[in-house]
Amino acid sequence: MSKTQPAAYSPVHILIHWAIAALILFQLVFGESMKDLERALRGDGTPDAVTAFMGNAHIWVGIAVLVLTVLRLVVRARFGVPAPVPASRLQELAARAVHGLLYLLMIVVPLTGLAAWFGGIREAGEIHELGKPLFIILIALHVAGALYHHFALKDRSLMRMISSRA
């Protein structure tokens, strides 16, 4: 862990955060394409170009989420993160829980997807499919918390992940 605590998130922290957010949003919106690809491969064995592209995009975007998440954890460990804004004990626990569960999902969901697709592990696929509703719930909580801090508490929590200026 870093011996010093930065005053603000670095541009690298911010870029990785928003890149992962965009990739996960893509997965949530277009993730059903994997089912289309699987059905096509089980059926006549030849998916159309769009189905093949979207299915493969799902795989590669999932890998990108996993790689960027590992990179983000390395950056956090190496360079640290700013101290949390002052909050009640309950808000602090909720923030830690949501962030921790998001990190867990950003690792487990791609790994189980890869295990299901390339390893044929049915149970991994079932776990993988639980990721979508869990991501939606946690993202909603994360966004609600950020908006609450920004509009109700009027602190700089949200702005810290938009600009690296302290």
From TrEMBL:
It holds the Pfam family Ni_hydr_CYTB. Its cofactor is heme b. Residues 9-163 form the Cytochrome b561 bacterial/Ni-hydrogenase domain. It is found in: Cell membrane. One of its GO terms (cellular component) is plasma membrane. InterPro entries: Cyt_b561_bac/Ni-Hgenase, Cytochrome_b561_oxidase, Di-haem_cyt_TM. GO terms for biological process: respiratory electron transport chain. One of its GO terms (molecular function) is electron transfer activity. The chain crosses the membrane at residues 12-30, 50-75, 96-118, 130-151. It is a multi-pass membrane protein. Keywords: Cell membrane, Electron transport, Heme, Iron, Membrane, Metal-binding, Transmembrane, Transmembrane helix, Transport. It comes from the Bacteria. Belongs to the cytochrome b561 family. This is Cytochrome b561. It comes from Roseibium marinum. The lineage of its organism: Bacteria, Pseudomonadati, Pseudomonadota, Alphaproteobacteria, Hyphomicrobiales.
